[in-house]
Amino acid sequence: MKTYTGERTARGVVVTVDGQPLRDPSDPHDPIGFEWGYDGPEPLNLSRALLEDCVGRSVDQSQIADFLAHIVRGLDNWWTLSEDDVRSVARQ
């Protein structure tokens, strides 16, 4: 079972999956990065990264938007999500 964590540090945000950096799915030549707690491109990118890592495939925009609205928008400065937490929203 995967565990996802995020925290805000003095050097920016850190998001990991099982202790390793979560892959940023945005364009490597123009990375968006991750953020949470509001609506915007960075939280949307985090939603996409979490979902795609968890389910192992691309997900559609409506799933990403739902995940942002139901989970990522409400995350605090430090958070942990289990694979089950992510999958529960991905199934809806």
Q: Can you walk through the features of this model?
A:
The chain has three helices and four strands; from the N terminus they run βββααβα. It has helices at 41-55, 61-70, 83-90; strands at residues 3-9, 12-17, 20-21, 78-82. 36% of the residues lie in helices and 22% in strands. The two termini are 20 Å apart. The chain has a four-stranded antiparallel β-sheet with strand order 3-2-1-4. It is an alpha+beta fold and 92 residues long.
Structural class: alpha+beta
Question: Helices and strands, in N-to-C order?
Answer: EEEHHEH
Lateral strand order in the biggest sheet: 3-2-1-4
Largest sheet: 4 strands, antiparallel
What spatial form do the alpha-carbon principal axes imply? Answer: globular
Number of helices: 3
Unreliable runs: none
Helical proportion, percent range:
25-40%
Mean pLDDT: 93
Based on CA atoms alone, the radius of gyration comes out at 12 Å
Proportion of β residues? Answer: 15-25%
Number of strands: 4
Distance between the termini: 20 Å
Oligomer: single chain
In short:
The protein is 36% helix and 22% strand. The protein contains 3 helices and 4 strands, in the order E-E-E-H-H-E-H. The protein has a 4-stranded antiparallel β-sheet.
